[in-house]
Write a structure and sequence with these properties.
Blueprint (H helix, E strand, L loop, with lengths): L2 H26 L1 H11 L5 H12 L3 H10 L2 H7 L5 H16 L7 H20 L13 H11 L3 H8 L4 H20 L5 H11 L3 H6 L4 H18 L9 H10 L7 H15 L10 H11 L3
Helix pairs in contact: 1-2, 2-3, 4-6, 5-7, 6-7, 7-10, 10-11, 10-13, 10-14, 15-16
Length: 298
């Protein structure tokens, strides 16, 4: 390649990067571009974030909530680890609480859309593996998940979402609780407040949960079984193609990033438990067998 050709290729590559970057900013919008740029900096640009959130504080509540819903999940995880954590968290949680209220004055379609977007954001945080760290305030993942459990996944809100007329809202709210329950049980022994919450989510007495704390497999089975039961009790029209349902099963079975053999083993074990006549899932044995055969046909 001649020198002239190399310069031409370099120029074309540069132009392509500029065009792609500009297209990305158009797609993200002005507000999200500012936050994304600050978070992508090698050392998170907190001055830019502070300026932007100060500006947001002057905006009306509707615009702030529109921004909160537009932030991608990965950025939410970082924002919940920043000095403006409380501002972002309070508006996100406030949005979910308002969507749970019948007196919120929202159009039903708007309410469901906002609620689903907010719950998807919460689920992304609940299932994330790590919280990024830097020179800013570092909040432990244990604290963030405790915050989620207290402010979002509390029983007052979750019971409303579990009974929602929209199947997607029911599934994703059940998913959040099942994932949080698994993570709580896999860390230190649950405290009194966590145990009270676990009893409601897992629908198990405290002595059964306490007696299984040294048996990770038994704890995983509790989370899997109650999630499967709660979803199958109020199924959607196309459960097998429900990405949240399938992804949650894979997470609870520890198969999210592993081979199909792990998922196969987990589903087979679920079928074995459901085959027991006194098991809560026994009445859904046919549906569970259909799910297994869908993913692992003979």
């Amino acid at each position: 390649m001649s020198s002239r050709q190399r310069k031409l290729v370099t120029g074309l590559n540069f132009s392509e990067k500029v065009v792609n970057h500009h297209a990305e900013r158009i797609k993200d919008g002005f507000r999200t571009s500012i936050v994304k740029g600050a978070l992508k900096a090698s050392d998170v640009d907190m001055k830019a974030l502070d300026w932007f959130f100060d500006l947001l504080a002057l905006a009306d509540k509707i615009k702030v909530r529109e921004f909160v819903l537009s932030v991608p999940g990965d950025m939410v995880v970082q924002l919940l680890n920043s000095s403006r954590r409380n501002f972002f968290r309070d508006h996100l949680y406030g949005l979910l609480r308002s969507c749970a209220s019948a007196t919120a004055g929202l159009d039903e379609e708007v309410r469901k859309r906002h609620l689903l977007m907010g719950l998807k954001t919460i689920r992304h945080v609940a299932r994330a593996d790590i919280i990024p760290t830097g020179n800013d305030v570092v909040v432990s993942f244990v604290d963030i998940r405790r915050d989620l459990r207290t402010n979002v996944a509390n029983m007052d809100l979750m019971r409303i979402f579990w009974a929602d007329s929209d199947p997607a809202i029911r599934v994703i709210s059940r998913s959040i609780c099942a994932i949080l329950a698994r993570q709580i049980l896999r860390n230190n022994p649950p405290d009194h407040a966590e145990m009270a919450w676990l009893k409601d989510v897992l629908d198990e007495p405290g002595n059964i949960i306490y007696g299984s704390l040294n048996d990770p497999a038994a704890l995983d089975s509790m989370c899997i079984d109650v999630f499967a039961y709660s979803v199958l009790s109020n199924p959607s029209d196309d459960l097998l193609n429900d990405k949240v349902f399938v992804d949650t099963l894979m997470i609870l079975m520890n198969a999210g990033s592993q081979t199909n053999l792990v998922f196969d083993t987990g589903l087979a074990a679920l079928l074995q438990r459901a085959a027991q006549e006194d098991h809560r899932l026994h009445g859904f044995l046919v549906q569970l067998n259909g799910i297994y055969e869908h993913f692992f046909p003979a």
